[in-house]
Amino acid sequence: MDHLLLTGATGLLGRYLMKDLLTSGKKLAVLVRPSRKFDAETRVEAAMRVWDDLLGYEIPRPVVLTGDINKPDLGMSSNDIKWTAENCRSIIHNAASLSFVSTGRDSEPWRSNVDGTSNVLEFCQQAGINEFFHVSTAYVAGLRQGRIYETELNEGQEFGNPYEESKVMAEEMVRGSSFIDSLTVFRPAIILGDSQTGLTFTYHNFYAVLQLSLTIGHSMAERHFSGKINATDFRLNATGSERKNFVPVDWVSEAMSEIVNDSSLHDQTYHLTPRVPITTRLLKDVMEEVVGSYGVGIASSTQKVSERTEFEEVFFKHMEVYESYWKDDPEFDSSNTQNAVPHLPCPHVDRDMLIRMSAAAMEKGFNWRDPKVKKADLAPVQV
Ligand SMILES: NC(=O)c1ccc[n+]([C@@H]2O[C@H](COP(=O)([O-])OP(=O)(O)OC[C@H]3O[C@@H](n4cnc5c(N)ncnc54)[C@H](OP(=O)(O)O)[C@@H]3O)[C@@H](O)[C@H]2O)c1
To answer: How many domains, in total, are found in the chain?
Structure first.
């Protein structure tokens, strides 16, 4: 009766949560779908071996349940459904699609974030899982400005992309589920890699912008005598003073794990957001340093496409998906988080940390590869 069920265990945050919760002594069951090449057990074992290698000792394994939140009964076998109903009373619903673009209501991110959450809720109700930890996002605030409180959700705001809107719908469905006895909602800001090592398993967002900047930067032929790339022809749609809220994944996971492990902290909503946001000027400076360019300018967002240079055209075309990226973020009030885990202040994402994260991503070629695990090496599942 004492396993915590986790969805999204193979993703960036999920892998950290697996490590932190299992090393804290929590018994964990993870719902994982097979990939094209590997079954769920092999995927989880490969993820766990990364932690064994980094920590230098073997950490306990979770119970692996094969499933897919987009399927009825989460696509689980009848044995696994029975096991879950007998052994799990709580869930961290963390799985989601992070797609910022959508081809329609039947596709991502709606499918996993709205329909998938609906399937998860139905499953939990039937399995008697009444304690719910829901991973939302600070960007349910959409295009709101000003100070955003942890108590607020749907204020009639507009959205920067379908992802934000789908996460509001998901959070509303969870909040509207009367079978849930205890609901704790986590709303992280933009999650980057590890604050110490730069380790990351996915390369969205900051990393996607960095990778594109590197590709374009290196195709800009004109080099200054200093060896740097002359990028004076290049202007961003930003003034430089826009604020962005980045948080390192190790902090998000550590704060969440502490809250999950302390029942006096449940039944709240937590903005997992930084105390001090960074500016788009700092982002631009970091990108320039990493790319080895100089002279990137700033332009108003009203600049007409026809006025753009060739490199700007390429950059903005590929950046369409992150259209809202350079806009000013609102200010996220994180009083609940600060009161709950005062000893765990969010590490400040500064220039050095961003450079460290960039270097770690470049070293992997923006492509994480798990160690190979042979099916024959897998230990029998202990249920
Ligand atoms: N990353 C951010 O900047 C950020 C910021 C705020 C909030 N969040 C929220 O934090 C949570 C975790 O995000 P993340 O960055 O760790 O994302 P991620 O790395 O993309 O991982 C997403 C996870 O969800 C799983 N998943 C997606 N669809 C599924 C399905 N149909 N059935 C089973 N599993 C499915 C994925 O499994 P596969 O490996 O099989 O694809 C993966 O394990 C999400 O709820 C996200 O909305 C993220």
So the answer is: 2
